[in-house]
Amino acid sequence: MDMKASSPADMIPIPGLHEALIKIIGEGLPLVKQPYAEIAKQLNCSESAVIDGIKSIIASGDLKRFGVVVRHRKLGYRANGMVVWDLPDNRVSEIGHCIGQYSFVTLCYQRPRRLPEWHYNLFSMIHGRDRAAVIDQVAFIVQQCGLQGIEHEILFSNRCFKQRGANYRVDPPSISSGRAVNE
Amino acid sequence: MREFSQLEQRLLNEFQQGLPLTSEPYADIARQLGVYETTVLETLHRLQTEGVVSRVGAVFRPNRIGASTLAAMAVPAKQLEDIAAIVSSFAEVNHNYEREHHFNLWFVVVAADEQHLQDVLAEIESSCAYPLLDLPLLNEYFIDLGFDLKWT
Question: Do B98 and A63 touch (CB under 8 A)?
Answer without folding.
Answer: no
